[in-house]
């Protein structure tokens, strides 16, 4: 079995978060979703678990970071083309996200970034592997 990753994120409004990820072309797995959380399927190995803040709090003794004021992490998705970078970030911005940094073009790497509606930071990057030889 391939290693899977589940990125667990607290959200203020679960429906808003589900709608946001749906607008980017991803869907929630109903088998692992309920009134407290939704399992957003990014790929066969990557899932974003968006959880209401009270439910998220049951998994930690620490305070929940306010991602609109502090950086808790920068989540990065690698995609297969520059066009896919632009499609995802443009969809995120249209769905209520906001731009977080300038477009990055460094050699074979192209990327853009956004904040989701709860302020969690996301980068979407394309790496042209043929240019790295």
TrEMBL record:
Top-level division of the source organism's lineage: Bacteria
PANTHER family according to UniProt: BLR2408 PROTEIN, BLR2520 PROTEIN
Organism: Streptomyces lycii
InterPro entries: Glyas_Bleomycin-R_OHBP_Dase, Glyoxy/Ble-like_N, VOC_core
Coiled coil: none
Name of protein: VOC family protein
Residue stretches making up the VOC domain: 3-127
One Pfam family it belongs to: Ble-like_N
TM regions (residue ranges): none
PROSITE patterns (UniProt xref): VOC
